[in-house]
Amino acid sequence: MLQTVTLSDDEKELIILDQRRLPGEVRYLRLRQKEEMKDAISTLAVRGAPAIGVFAGYAMYILGERLREKEPSFKECLKKYRELGKEMANVRPTAVNLSRAVNRMVRAMEEERSLYDEARTIHQKDIDTNKKIGEYGLSLLKPGMGILTHCNAGALATTAYGTATSPLYLGHEKGYGFHVYCDETRPLLQGARLTSFELSQAGMDVTVLCDDMSASLMSEGRIDAIFIGCDRVAANGDAANKIGSLSLSIAARYYGVPFYVCAPTSTIDMDTISGKDIVIEQRDGEEIRSMWYEKPMVPEGVGIYNPAFDVVPSENITAMITENGIYTNTGNGINLKNGVIR
Ligand code: MRU
Asked: Rounded to an integer, what is the distance from CA 319 to the centroid of its chain?
């Protein structure tokens, strides 16, 4: 399994797999400077809510230690560190893991605790969480099932087995023989470029389809379950995830296909009341117009709508799988205040 985010041996650099180059090229980048770290997040060299959280922890560690060396006054150092945290957290607004990891690091600095330990704790928690989500998720599946997934909530979006893919990896190890369908995931093709890449490398049976083909596949009865990740879950159980998740959930409900959201508790944000309160990142229209083509595919002057995420209403979610257990929808959506059901 490819390592997405690590710290160099001398602990002064962040080493990341450059996901912009996949699947054609496996190349690692070594980052030291704030601007290159911010650029790695905004251009999706590192991506996926949990991986961004782990990345932010290490970035804040490296930059925080440098600040501590340069700035003798604790008060001044803390002030600058808080400003740095704000700058970092604003790069991508939707995934709560980014601001949460940054806030944890700022708190560690405030309390004069080890920044290294805090960053390591964030990382280790992600590894443990992936495994648990896999075990709970697998308890919902049977051998030979057809499973659809959207975007990449895989090993490449985390630092271990992924969230939505974790049950697939664990099932594969046990010989479950799943047929996995990956939505291409326009416009940045995380399903085609990343999910199909990592799952086929692991030896799974993988088929890629365009996003507008998934309802057709469901109508043919070829999908037994859908597993997606998420970037932020609101207190009412609404879940923001990659654009296209909403329409997928609507089609799933229509065809009676179970729709599972894999949600590490690091993505649950009880301070956000509902999906309407989640800030959705808007991205450059060139990702649709020209990024993948030799010539622009949208005429000059035509507007482009390019939100990176949408919100799946709680009532469309069959169950939410966390590292602590599964919240089941008993009719009125996911009730996170009820405690896990199984
Ligand atoms: O824009 P991306 O590639 O960072 O979007 C990723 C997703 O939407 C994932 O599904 C989500 O972050 C969960 S990753 C375990």
From this structure: 18
Q: For a pocket test of ligand 1, which of 227, 233, 241, 279 has the largest count of ligand atoms closer than 8 A to its C-beta?
A: 241
- 290, burial (CB in 10 Å: exposed 0-12, middle 13-18, buried 19+): middle
pTM exceeds cut of 0.85: yes
Q: 82-103 as b/e, with b when 16 or more CB fall inside 10 Å?
A: eebbeebbebbbbbbbbbbbbe
Q: How many CB atoms lie within 10 A of CB 250?
A: 15
Mean pLDDT for 155-168 is 98
Q: How many Å lie between the centroid of ligand 1 and the Cα of residue 73?
A: 39
Q: 253-283: b or e for each residue (b if 16 or more CB lie within 10 Å)?
A: eeeebbbbbbbbebbbbeebeebeebebbeb
pLDDT at position 99? 97
Atom in ligand 1 nearest the alpha carbon of residue 309: 8
Per-residue tokens: 69: 């060396």
The Cα–Cα gap between 11 and 123 comes to: 14
Q: Is the CB of 40 inside a 6 Å radius of any atom of ligand 1?
A: no
Task: Provide, rounded to the nearest whole percent, the portion of the chain with pLDDT above 70.
Answer: 99
Q: Which of 231, 238, 269, 310 is catalytic?
A: 231
DSSP state of 195: I
Q: What is the pLDDT of residues 274-328, one digit of tens each?
A: 999 999 999 999 999 999 999 999 999 999 999 999 999 999 999 999 999 999 9
Ligand 1 nearest atom to the CA of residue 190, by list position: 3
Do the beta carbons of residue 212 and residue 281 sit within 8 Å?
no
Atom number of ligand 1 nearest to Cα 49: 12
Does 214 contact ligand 1 (Cβ within 6 A)? no
